[in-house]
Design a protein that fits this description.
The complex is a heterotrimer of chains A (35), B (93) and C (371).
Chain A: E1 23-26
Chain B: H1 3-8, E1 16-17, E2 21-26, E3 29-34, E4 40-43, H2 46-54, H3 61-68, H4 74-86, E5 90-91
Antiparallel strand pairs in B: 1-5, 2-3, 3-4
Helix pairs in contact in B: 3-4
Chain C: H1 2-12, E1 20-26, H2 50-62, E2 67-72, H3 81-90, E3 94-99, H4 106-113, E4 118-124, H5 129-136, H6 140-153, E5 160-165, H7 173-183, E6 186-191, H8 198-205, H9 209-220, E7 255-256, E8 261-263, E9 274-277, H10 278-281, H11 283-289, H12 291-296, H13 311-314, H14 319-324, H15 340-348
Parallel strand pairs in C: 1-2, 1-7, 2-3, 3-4, 4-5, 5-6
Antiparallel strand pairs in C: 7-8, 8-9
Helix pairs in contact in C: 4-6
Classes of the chains: A little secondary structure (35), B alpha+beta (93), C alpha/beta (371).
């Protein structure tokens, strides 16, 4: 997968989902396949 | 990743993994689950997992990163720690 | 979506251990809900003993599975219920349990309120007794409401109200929202699947396509309503709903049943999806080595959905929904939002369909005496 190039337009107030970031939050309230 | 979040994180302070977090190794790094806020976070490198596990053994986050990670990666790792602090996975004393 | 989808594909390939799993403690139940996914009612004499259950909890803790979703049957019927959940939390395994509420009296509510890392989810199937009791039996709605009152009086904190979306309950969404708000509770809506006894009432009770569209729109406007990721098949309608939007069965979650059998998920209690038994050599062995789970972790084949532009959003839908309506895994989901599933069902003239087994149903009517 080609890494994305981060440009100034990509900066937002949110945590960016770019290849460079070493952490990523997963939004879960439960996973499909559990109660 | 907002610059404001990175700026708000003081890497010269002492930080440690919160005891409310379960950290589990995976092939790609680790999964961290915070039992109180229910957040699930994916740590994408083994080095970062090492830094997080050993963070509390150092005087400061800067010390931990400087000791465990190559210098050209310093900012990237401090940025990651700032994100973890925002989700309450790491805390001060 | 770049990084999120690479995370999704990592999850689809499976993890070292489940993120969480469902653990049905008992097939015994004091209700007889018409759609019960586990065909519960009668206790199975081969149920795990207290010692075996605690040993399983120890293994779950050692594997660092983050939490267990406890259910059944009615889990609070087990005499060692509190002993088991307290053992779990003492080992840093979070517990979320699902209950009909009949056993949450004032004393139990207080005890639950005192346990850390515990979530409670009370099941109802309608926003009023008439609607809910049609599925769950006379007196069941009132019992659930009493449980909610007791939790509130005991200062339990935020509990969850869980509703399966049927043709009837889907018309009461605003009422459920109001009910949850009135208790400061979280609302959880989940998909009705033709699993367990559900297969007997699925045709008559599953929401229509139009209702599913309405539900999707309602959910999109309310990201705080929980869904347990069960509506990912609706994500083909537009923006994805909150959550991972993927089938976790055998990859990030699974089911352990009351006799220690391990299934891909609680909606596929059937030999076809049986991965092993914890009594053979523990749970870790089954998770890591079972044939079934290894094959589920292989990249999926879109099958009939290959030509549909929305496959990436819905991944062909739910295995359980397909299996128990007699469709193949390569067919579209029976509730495919573009109607491809309905077409597949019609084309197949399905007459013989799999049924869940084992079946622990009690086949006599149940009346719940009000207290």
């Amino acid at each position: 997968m080609t890494p994305e190039t981060l440009t100034s337009e990509d900066a937002t107030d949110e945590i960016e989902e770019v290849e460079d970031l070493l952490v990523e939050e997963v939004s879960i309230d439960g996973l499909c396949g559990v109660y | 990743m907002s610059q404001a979040i990175v700026d708000a994180f003081d890497a010269s302070q002492y930080w440690q993994l919160s005891e409310k977090v379960s950290l589990r190794d995976e092939e790609f790094g680790a999964l961290a689950y915070h039992h109180v806020n229910r957040r699930l976070i994916f740590l994408k490198s083994r080095e970062l997992v090492d830094v997080v596990r050993r963070l509390g053994d150092f005087e400061s986050a800067d010390d931990a990163v400087n000791s465990l990670v190559a210098p050209d990666q310093h900012d990237r790792y401090v940025t990651a720690l700032a994100a973890l602090e925002k989700s309450a996975l790491i805390r001060g004393r | 979506m770049g990084a999120e989808s690479s995370l999704r594909s990592r999850f689809e390939r499976g993890l070292a251990a489940p993120i969480c799993l469902t653990w049905e403690l008992t097939y015994a139940c004091n209700l007889a809900c018409t759609h019960c996914l586990s065909s519960s009612g009668r206790r199975d004499p081969r149920e795990l003993t207290t010692a075996e259950a605690k040993s399983l909890i120890d293994e779950i803790a050692a594997m660092q599975i983050f939490y267990v979703n406890v259910g059944g049957g009615e889990p609070m019927i087990r005499r060692d219920f509190f002993e088991l959940i307290e053992h779990a939390v003492s080992r840093h395994v979070g517990v979320k349990f699902s209950t009909n509420g009949t056993r949450i009296d004032k004393e139990s509510a207080k005890r639950l309120a005192g346990i850390d890392y515990l979530d409670v989810q009370i099941s109802i199937d309608g926003a009023d007794a008439a609607t809910s009791d049609r599925i769950r039996g006379v007196g069941s709605y009132d019992a659930a409401r009493r449980a909610m009152e007791n939790l509130r009086d005991a200062n339990f904190g935020r509990f969850k109200i869980s509703v399966v979306m049927t043709k009837e309950s889907v018309e009461q969404l605003d009422d459920f929202e109001a009910l949850a708000t009135s208790y400061g509770a979280e609302l959880r809506l989940t998909r009705f699947r033709p699993s367990g006894r559900g297969v007997e009432v699925w045709n008559e009770l599953h929401p229509t396509l139009e209702q599913n569209r309405g539900l999707y729109r309602w959910l999109l406007e309310r990201p705080n309503v929980l869904t347990g990721d069960s509506f990912f098949h609706l994500s083909a309608l537009g923006s994805p709903l909150e959550g991972l939007n993927l089938c976790g069965a055998g990859r990030v979650v699974c089911l352990i049943d009351p006799v220690g059998d391990v299934y891909a998920c609680p909606f596929v209690i059937h030999d076809e999806f049986l991965a092993g038994n914890v009594r053979d050599a523990g749970f870790a062995q089954v998770w890591t080595n079972s044939e079934l789970f290894r094959s589920l972790r292989e990249p999926g084949n879109p099958g009939a959905c290959a030509s549909c532009g929305s496959y990436d959003a819905c991944r062909g839908g739910c295995m359980a929904a397909k299996f128990f309506t007699g469709l193949e895994m390569s067919d579209p989901d029976p509730e495919c939002v573009f109607g491809h599933g309905e077409a597949a069902l019609a084309a197949k003239h399905v007459s013989i369909r799999p049924i869940s087994s084992p079946d622990h149903s009690r086949r006599i009517p149940v009346t719940l005496a009000s207290r």
